[in-house]
Design goal:
The structure holds 2 protein chains of 2 kinds. Chain A is mainly alpha-helical. In chain A, 67% of the residues lie in helices and 5% in strands. Chain A has a two-stranded antiparallel ribbon. In chain A, α2 packs across α10 and α3 packs across α4. In chain B, 54% of the residues lie in helices and 2% in strands. In chain B, 31% of the residues are buried. Classes of the chains: A mainly alpha, B mainly alpha. The interface between A and B is large, with 72 and 58 residues. β2 of chain A pairs antiparallel with β1 of chain B, so a sheet runs across the interface.
């Protein structure tokens, strides 16, 4: 615990050390870190109409400061906040599904196929739409779309290279293009 | 019919792309846009931070050594 006092030495408040550390780390973020944070907030909310990036980031910071989530030692603050944003987006999506806000049309789900589509159509459709929205970020970059498909399938980089006939250099240059696309998307001002 | 679980694909993909953003170097960030665009995006995020910390003048105006106003509303803070 850390004590904060008036000039006279009278104690004002005692705050959990971890919370103070989080506040200090957030204050110390560089412009590049802030851009990464915004890019991550926009990535997690991609394809989710009801969730704005700034709302999710706001909630993530509030949870981190409030101690609802502990900051693990050795984890960079941006990665920590990103993990909280991921949880918030997943919680929001689960809640929306429970409350019936995600309504799948029968013909949309039929196009997707598979057992899951039949058993949980809203979840399947929402995830498929979010996947499409992420793919849109790399529209026009055929190799990036291959890498995206491989990553979504859980393949390792060597497996992706083997499957699509890419060299290590192809893969590395594609990853750099993907990073630039994600960061450029993060810099955009709109909520979508 | 092949069993496709798009929510699993989405989770894997977002996890991988999160790693790419986190791994982007400061130089990579600087190369994607003009300095004023980067400054504008950083300012937007600082406004969000300031809103959480209850600092109407912007996050830069808060003394980081002091507990933000939001802390005082939390259970973890003990008033004297």
């Amino acid at each position: 615990m850390e004590r904060f006092t008036e000039g006279s030495g009278r104690p004002i408040v005692t705050v959990d050390n971890t919370t103070v550390d989080v506040a200090r780390a957030i204050h110390a973020l560089s412009s590049a870190d802030l851009v990464r944070l915004k890019a991550l907030a926009r990535l997690w909310t991609r394809g989710q109409d009801a969730l704005g990036w700034s709302d999710v980031l706001h909630e993530a910071i509030a949870r981190a400061l409030g101690g609802a989530r502990r900051w693990p030692p050795g984890v960079p603050i941006v990665a920590f906040l990103s993990g909280i944003m991921r949880s918030i987006c997943e919680d929001h999506w689960r809640r929306a599904r429970r409350e019936g806000q995600l309504i799948a049309r029968e013909e949309d789900v039929a196009d997707l196929g598979g057992e899951d589509a039949a058993s949980d159509p809203e979840r399947t459709l929402a995830a498929a739409q979010a996947l499409a929205a992420v793919n849109d970020l790399f529209a026009g970059d055929a190799v990036a779309l291959m890498v995206i498909a491989g990553l979504a399938d859980g393949l390792s980089p060597p497996e992706i290279c083997r499957l699509y006939g890419l060299t290590d250099r192809d893969y590395d240059t594609t990853r750099r293009r993907m990073r630039r696309a994600l960061l450029r998307h993060g810099l955009a001002g709109s909520e979508t | 019919m092949t069993r496709w679980r798009p929510h699993i694909d989405l989770a894997r993909l977002l996890g991988a792309l999160e790693g790419e953003v986190l791994a982007a170097s400061d130089d990579a960030v600087r190369l994607v846009a003009a300095p004023r665009e980067i400054a504008a995006a950083a300012a937007e995020v600082r406004q969000v931070i300031a809103a959480v910390l209850g600092d109407p003048d912007g996050a830069g105006g808060v003394d980081p050594r002091l507990p933000p106003a939001a802390f005082l509303r939390e259970h973890r803070v003990r008033q004297h």
